[in-house]
Amino acid sequence: MRITNLTSFNTYTFFKLPSAWWSGVRLTKIEDQLTEVSVKHSWVNQNPFGSIFWAVQGMAAELSTAIFLMWTIKKSNHSVSMLVLRNQANFKKKARGLIKFHCNQRDKAVAAVKKAIDGNEAVTVVLKSSGMDTAGDIVSEFEFEWSLKKKVK
For position 2, what pLDDT does the model report? Predict the structure, then answer.
């Protein structure tokens, strides 16, 4: 799986996820087994404590887990609904500077989408994302439980 034009995907976020786009959330890398979504601390996305607001980190983390799901659904030519059922987060240090969120669970995401397409029941999958600063320290970790269900026409 390759998204060769990151700019076109980030333009998509401008129209479909404007709060993420205005907060500086950007898809910066997608490889066969890894997605990377970055956000840089700025005036627009800060909290009163001089770091990136937790919800902005959550948007970046969620997007990093959603990319493999979205791409697999698009390639399948089926309509599949996606919904976050549950989210859990742990914060380890202040998110300052450039933070990169990584999800490396492509195979798990693809299998869940295929199972949803092949069946008539909702399928759940838990995908994780970790945010790291430029020093390589983990600043936050997120877990999203996604529900996927094939839409009936």
Answer: 43
For 145, the domain range is 6-150
Q: Report the CATH number that the domain containing residue 76 is assigned in CATH.
A: 3.10.129.10
Specify whether the CB–CB gap between 35 and 66 falls below 8 A. no
Mean pLDDT value across the chain: 94
Predicted local confidence at residue 49, as pLDDT? 95
The total number of structural domains that make up the chain: 1
Helices and strands in the chain: count of H runs, count of E runs: 4, 6
- Beta-carbon contacts of 21 under 8 Å, excluding residues fewer than 6 positions away, are 10, 13, 14
Q: At a CB cut-off of 8 Å and minimum separation 6, what does 14 contact?
A: 21
Residue 1 in any domain: the answer is no
Interval 1-28: pLDDT, tens:
345 577 788 888 889 899 999 999 999 9
Q: Tell me, yes or no, whether 85 lies in a domain.
A: yes
Query: What digits encode the pLDDT tens for the residues 23-56?
Result: 999 999 999 899 999 999 999 999 999 999 999 9
